[in-house]
Amino acid sequence: MLTKKNQNTSTCLKNPKNGNTISLKLRIRNFIFISFAAVIMALNIKIFVRNANTFPGGATGLTLLIQQIFWRFFNIKVSYTIINLLINAIPVYIGFRYIGKHFTILSVYMIIVTSVLTDLLPAIKITDDILLLVVFGGIINGVAISICLLSGATSGGTDFISIFISERKGIDSFNIILGFNTVILTIAGFLFGWDKAMYSIVFQFISTQVLHLLYRKYQETTLFIVTNKPREVVETIATISGHSSTILEGEGSYEHCERNVVYSVISSQESSHVVKAVKTTDPKAFVNVMRTQQVQGRFYRPKEY
Fold it and tell me: 280 lies in a domain?
C-alpha cells in the first residue's frame, strides 16, 4: 500500500502522436476491413433484419421504414441505395465539416457499398424464429459497426451525429442515439404493429451493447502505476496514448521506503496496450486499472482523420 506524500507538477510532454500521418499499409488495412464490414452489414439486412421485419434504427432503420411505407401504402418499390444516400446527405456534411475528411470519405465508401449490396444481394431465409433473428441480427450489426469505427470510418447516419457529439462533449453518446431511434420505432409501431417496434428496440439495444463492448474510445480508464522508473513509464504512456501523466511521491506502508506512483487517465480502448507496454518498461511495476465515470478538465482525445 502507498500513502500520498506530495504531488509533483504534471509531467508536460508534447503529444508524439500525429493523427494526420497514416501509413499506406494502415490505409489499405482499413479499406479492407471497411469493405468486410459493408458486406457483413448488407448480409445482416438481407438475412436477419428484413426476415424479422424489424427496423434497426439510425439511417438504416429510417431507410427500411420509408421503403416499407412506399411498398405498403403506394405499392411502389423504392431503391434502398437512393433513400439511404439522401438520408445520409446531412450527416456526411457534418462529417466533412467537423469530424475529418478522410474519415468521412471512408464512411461514404462504406455507405455506398452497403447500400448497393443490399439492393443486389438476394433475400436469404435461415429461420422463422423472430427472436433468434433479432438477437443475432443485433449482435452482427454491433460487430459490423465496431469494425467500421475501429477502421477509421462509420456506417453513416446517426453514427456521424453520435461521434460529433462525443467529440464536442467528450462523452459516450451512443445511448443518446438509442433514445433518438425510439422515435423511428414509435412511428413503425403505429404503422406496422407494436410487436415489430418492440423487437426493433431489442435489436437496437443488443447492437448498442455490443458496440460498447468492442468500441471504447469514449470510455476512460484511470491508471495508478507504482514504479521505480516513473519517467520511463510516463514516456511510454505518452508514446502510445498521447496522454500526459502526473508523478506522485509516496511511501510504502510496510518497508517505509519511497515509491513513485504514475497517475494517468487514458481511453479504455488503449488501456490493454498501455499496460502491456508499461510492464515491458518496468516488469516490477504494480498497475491498478480503474474504470473512470467522468473526467473534467483538459483531456486529450485524438481526432478522426
Answer: yes
